[in-house]
Amino acid sequence: MTFNNVLIGQAGGPTAVINQSLWGVVSTLYDSKKVGAVLGARQGVAGVLKGDLIDLRATGRRRWKSVAQTPGAALGSVRHKPTEEECARILEQCTAFGVRHFVYIGGNDSAETAMLLSSMARTAKRELSIWHVPKTIDNDLRVTDHCPGYGSAARFVACAFLGDEEDNRSLGGVKINVVMGRDAGWLTAASVLARRHEDAGPHLIYVPERPFSLEAFANEVDAVVKRIGRCVVAVSEGVRDAAGKPIVNSSERDSHGNLQLSGSGQLGDQLAAYLKAKLGLKRVRADTLGYLQRSFAGCVSKVDAAEAFEVGRTAAKAALKGKLEGGSVALLRREGKKRYEAECALIDLARVAKVTRPLEAQFLAGNSDVTPEFAAWLSPLVGDLPVTERLLHKSWTR
Amino acid sequence: MTFNNVLIGQAGGPTAVINQSLWGVVSTLYDSKKVGAVLGARQGVAGVLKGDLIDLRATGRRRWKSVAQTPGAALGSVRHKPTEEECARILEQCTAFGVRHFVYIGGNDSAETAMLLSSMARTAKRELSIWHVPKTIDNDLRVTDHCPGYGSAARFVACAFLGDEEDNRSLGGVKINVVMGRDAGWLTAASVLARRHEDAGPHLIYVPERPFSLEAFANEVDAVVKRIGRCVVAVSEGVRDAAGKPIVNSSERDSHGNLQLSGSGQLGDQLAAYLKAKLGLKRVRADTLGYLQRSFAGCVSKVDAAEAFEVGRTAAKAALKGKLEGGSVALLRREGKKRYEAECALIDLARVAKVTRPLEAQFLAGNSDVTPEFAAWLSPLVGDLPVTERLLHKSWTR
Asked: Are residues A169 and A84 in the same domain?
C-alpha cells in the first residue's frame, strides 16, 4: 500500500473565490505522476471522519475552470473545529486512505486544526504533510498582507456603497448599511472606496476595533445631516460598547455559541429605530448586506481570483516537493513598486493559527472613519470599480 | 417670450438605469434647434414648485455618458404625488419658465400626475405637452411588456440567488431571502433564474399575488429539507394572508402612510424565528436584499440599459415632432422572433396611470413557484448570467 494520495478540504464561511484555491491545488496535481489519487473531503473534516470522499480528477479541466469561478465551497464546508480525539481519528483515516498530503482551505480556525494535526502526525511519526491554504472575507489572518476572498467581498461592499450613495442622494434621509465582520473591521472599512466626492458617503464608518456608543453615533449622524441634509453609514455587525458588550440586542446563538450576527437584520433595525426616536428623523433605512457579501455571483476581483488560485498552487507545489512537513501560505506585497505586486510565501502554521488580526490602528481615523492610506492599500485588491458620475450643477433662472 | 423649453424630472424609487432614460431624453434634444433650454427639475415636482432647476446642457456629452451609467436619480427624486392645487401651480411654473414640454420619468403614480397635468393644461388651453417615461424595478406598469429598471433589478436578484444557492449547498440549513415588491411578485419571481439544477434553489418562491400562510410555509420548507437536507426561499416583502393582512408585524410607516417594508430586516427575521420554533431547525438565516436591488453599481442588464435609453429618446422625439399633447412610452415585444426584440410605442397616459399590474396567473405555479414560461419570458431582459458549476460527484473508496 502506497501513501501518495492527496486529500483536500474546505472549511468555514465560503468566499467568492475559495474554489479558485481548490482548483489551484488540484490543477497542480492533475497530471502529476508523483501523487496517487487527488481526493476531496465533503464538508471538510466531517467528510474525512465519515470517509465521504470524491475523486477530484473525475471532473474534467474544462468543467473545473467553471467550478473555480463559482462562489461557495464546491466540496461543501463545515464550521466544526475537531477535538483532539477527532484529530487522532482524522490521522487514522488519512492512513487508511493512503493520504500523504492533506490540504485544508480555511481561516485561522482551520490553520489551528492543521497545526494540531501536523504536531500529532509528527509525534506519531506518520508520513503526512499538512497544508493550510488561507481564505476569509474577514481578512483577519496574520502575516499575510491580505486574505484571498477579502478582495472580492470588499468589491461587493464598495459597489453596494457606490450605488447606495446615489440612492441616498436621490431621496435623502439616513441610510445605515450593516457589513460583515464580527471582530475585525476590514470589510466595513472597504466602504470607503465609494467616497468619490467630498460630500459623498459613507460619511461615517464604525468598526469593532473602536468602542461604539449610541449617543456618539446619534450626534455624529446629526452633524452630517445638518451639514449636507442626508447621511450614509457603514457599521460593522460586530460593533460593541466600551465594555466589550455587543450593541445588538439578540439572543440568537450560532452553533459555536456565538451571538448570531449575520443572517439577521436586527442590528440595522435597532440602530434605525434609535436614530428615529433620538433625532426625530423621518426617513431612516437600514440594510444588512448579509451573505451576498461572500457569495454574490459576478462580483469578483480579478486580483483576488488570481491570488486565490496562486495560494492553492503554492501549497500543492510545496507538497509535491516533499521536503516540508507542511505549512501555510501568505501573500507578501512587494514594497516600493509603482504597480501592485504580491508573491506567495510558505510560512509556519503557528504563525497563522488561532490569533486573528484586527484592522490596524494606522488605518483608523478617529472613532468613525478610516485613513486615505487604507483606501490606497485596499484599492488594488478590489480592482477598477464601476463608473459613477454626477451632473454639473448650473442653476437656471429665466 | 417663447415657449420652447423642455423640463425633465425624475420621481419615485430610483433604478440602476433611470439615468439612461434621462440621457435618452437629453441626448435627443442636446443639439436640437427646435427647443430652447433643456432643464432638469431637482427632486421632481418639488423642484418645479420651488423653481429649483438646472441647465442640463451645462454637462458635456462625455460626462453625460458616465452619468447615464450611474444608479440613482441624477436629478434627485421625490415620493410626493402633487395635489390638484399643486398641479395648477406646476402649470403656472411651466408657463413662467417658458416650458413647452414636460417629461416625467417615473412609475404609475408619476403617470397619474402626468395625466392630471395634461388634462388641466388642455382645459386651460395651455400650450404644453406632458410626457411620461416609464421606470420601476417592480415591473408593475400596464400595457408595456416590461418596465425599464426591472431587468437590472432582476439581474441583481438572480445573481444573489445564484451565489446564495452555492453558499447554502456549502453549509446547509434554511436560507430566506426577502425581495422587494409590495404588491407585485415580478422581482421575487426573478430568483427562478438561479435554478440551474433539479435540486437547486430557490426551492420555494412566495409572491404577493398568492395568499401566504405561515403553516403552509413551514410545511413546504419542511418537505424540501426532508428531501434534500436544505432549502433556499425567495419571499416577497409584500406577502399577506388570505384576508390581505401583511405578514410582517411592523408599525413603521413610510411618508405615504404605507407599512414600511424596505429598509428593514423584520419580515425575514420573523419568518426565520418562526421556522426555528416550528420545525426545530438549527440553522435558519434570513437576508433582506434591500435597496441594493435597485442601486448596486455594476450589475446592469445591457438590454435594460439600452431600452431605458430608448424609451427616453422616444418621448423626446415625439415631443420634438410636436403633434401630440403628450403620452407615455411602452415596450412592445415582437412576437414570433427567434431572438428577443422589442420596440417603443407611444400610448395614452390613461392606459398606464394609477392601476398596477400583478404578476400574471399564467406565470404562477401553485402557491410557491413560477412556471418555466416565466423564466423564458424573463431571461432575455436580464442577459447572460455568471457561470456557476458543480463538481462531478464520483465517490472514492480505497
From this structure: no
